[in-house]
Design a protein that fits this description.
Elements (H helix, E strand, L loop, with lengths): L18 H9 L11 H9 L14 H5 L2 E5 L5 E3 L2 H11 L6 E2 L2 E2 L12 H7 L7 H10 L3 H6 L2 H5 L5 H12 L2 H12 L7 H8 L1
Antiparallel strand pairs: 1-2, 3-4
Helix pairs in contact: 1-2, 5-6
Length: 205
Amino acid sequence: REEGEVDFRCISIDCPAQALERLLHWASRGAMDIDGMGEEIVSRLVESGRLSDVADYYTLDEVELSLLDMGRVNKDGEPIRLGSTVAKKLVAAIGVENLVIVSTKAEVPPADESRTRPFARALFGLGIRHVGKTIAELLAAAYPSIEALMEASEEDLAVIDGVGPKIARSAYLFLRTPDNAAVIERLRSHGVALADEAADAGEQL
């Protein structure tokens, strides 16, 4: 419960009551922009138990998506499936977990897959309370990697111009909630960009 407010809120990224909205937010155009991943498909994946948090997107495969029961039947009474055409498009938009090996060279992931979005968009996509696109950009500019951001104190975040104590506390608590940290680690393991290029270059020096 935030100081001065009556309502209690769950700040865990895998909260069942917020799962659908968080998943849709992650896939939205302003965040990771997973083209074609709309409410109907996400709802069916949640209902089937296949999606519970945003890291689950990166474990989906084309075959299982193509067979997804859309909850309707055709004129012959057969269940309508998502189909291979849409499934292929979604898998490409999400981004495969591993690079495809051709001969001895690894193909570069397509630039339009969600794993390649800037760090600020991933930060916005996490759905941290009070952290909109502009605030996410401010946080990412000050701490251009998830590791740096997670190590920052509440006071460090509060002094960022445009952030302030209320937003700082929300971000600080979110990043230190164990369930959220576990999802962030899974996103990292699936190759989602959780640092900008400048941070990556600095870490290599």
